[in-house]
Structure formats: structure tokens, C-alpha cells
Task: structure prediction
Amino acid sequence: MKNNIKHLRSKYSLTQDELAEKLNVSRQTIISLEKGRYNPSITLAFKLSHVFNCQIEDIFIYEGE
Result:
């Protein structure tokens, strides 16, 4: 699934390590999310929306099936 995590992370001046720490996940998880190789759990999606102060739909781009 495509997403805007890298853009939002840059906008908030966060490193991958800092974002991982805020979300209580590994840096590797952040890398996989940014590259679209990993779809997050709904819990992680809500945590991301909280960190970036936006809607989940503003982070993830649904492309259909």
C-alpha cells in the first residue's frame, strides 16, 4: 500500500529512529512501511495518525484491489 510516511516524517523533522521510538517499533518497520513492503496493523495506523496529527486517509493511499 502506498503511503505518505516519508513525506510526513520529513515535514515533522523526524528521523526513522525517532519515529520508530515514538511508535514503539523497530527502525526496520519504518523502512518497510516507507517502501510499501509492509501494511501496518490498524493500531499502528492510528498511532501514526496521532504522531502526524492527521487522518489515517492522509497517510495511506488506498488503490483498490
User: Anything to note?
Assistant: The domain at 2-57 is CATH 1.10.260.40 (434 Repressor (Amino-terminal Domain)).
